[in-house]
Write a structure and sequence with these properties.
Rossmann fold, 8 helices, 6-stranded mixed beta sheet, 2 domains, alpha/beta, 38% helix
């Protein structure tokens, strides 16, 4: 899909060697997720004769300071991984430096972006649970005020699948907590599983939070997937690590997103389109054994 909006036509492209990758994570666990984006970008840039410059967006830096650093670097293009700054991006575009945002949908109507299709991924993940026979489900998420679109898209995708099969889902089955509130999570799960029609499956906002859910379920002596199935968008976790739980996910294809972002940037540099393009990449189901048929 894509959104359209006219922008100023940039001046004729100048020759440059450096490409900036803007990056900023407020949670340490997200580095495992964002690192593949950056590594893939670096590989593509070097293979095409460009030198990547990774800039960590420290909160104490002003917009003017960031712009000055980018201008001094001589960079002619910018990829922003998860990071968005409306004022900064508007100023850089006006300077003729094109930007492509990767995996942040907050400004998709204003800037060129490559996103994961969170709505469709949540819909298809819920459909997988329904195909396994699950009819009573709960939805667990944590507060992310910096990413309201992700919260909305994933829940609405889940709800569309629920509604499409005329399944009952009330507000009491949607759990929204702070990421670190383990006591609240334990209390919420105890309440859910005390219901007469307790959930047989849990859709969790992402697999990092799902790992916390699995830890609490273990404390409650509930087995996954024998007692309850769990699915989540991912992959925030590094499943090559043997000590991590194996969670069935709707995997975000970081490699495809980066290649799509590269193609979009090349299109911008060579044709200078006047319409904003927003491209969305589908998630794919990866079965790791945390979902089972209803017994």
């Amino acid at each position: 899909g894509y959104k359209r909006k006219s922008i100023r036509t940039r001046p004729k492209k100048k020759s440059f060697k450096y490409v900036v990758i803007l990056h900023y994570e407020t949670q340490s666990y997200l580095w495992n997720f964002s690192r593949p984006f950056i590594s893939e970008l670096e590989t593509i840039l070097l293979a095409n004769g460009y030198y990547p410059l990774v800039m960590h967006m420290l909160p104490q830096l002003t917009t003017e300071e960031i712009i000055q650093e980018i201008k001094l670097s001589g960079a002619g293009a910018i990829f922003a991984v998860h990071y968005v700054n409306d004022q900064l991006f508007e100023s850089l575009e006006n300077l003729g430096i094109p930007i492509v945002i990767i995996n942040n949908s907050n400004f998709q109507k204003k800037f060129f972006s490559v996103l994961v299709d969170d709505f469709q991924g949540a819909y298809e993940g819920t459909e997988h649970l329904i195909e396994l026979g699950h009819r009573n489900m709960a939805y667990l998420e944590y507060n992310r005020p910096d990413l309201p679109a992700v919260i909305m898209d994933r829940f609405f995708g889940f709800k569309k699948a629920i509604d499409g099969h005329n399944l009952v889902f009330d507000d009491g089955r949607r759990i929204s907590l702070e990421l670190t509130d383990m006591e609240g999570l334990s209390a919420a799960l105890k309440r859910l599983f005390a219901m007469p029609d307790r959930p047989t499956a849990l859709f969790v906002h992402d697999d990092y939070y799902a790992a916390s859910v699995l830890a609490v379920l273990a404390q409650l002596k509930m087995k996954v997937p024998a007692d309850v199935s769990v699915i989540a968008p991912g992959d925030v976790l590094d499943y090559l690590q043997p000590f991590l739980p194996q969670i069935t996910t709707m995997r975000i294809n970081t490699s495809l997103m980066v290649r799509t972002a590269w193609d979009l940037m090349m299109n911008r540099l060579h044709t200078m389109p006047e319409e904003i393009h927003v491209l969305k990449v589908k998630q794919t189901l990866v079965k790791r054994g945390s979902c089972a048929h209803v017994s």
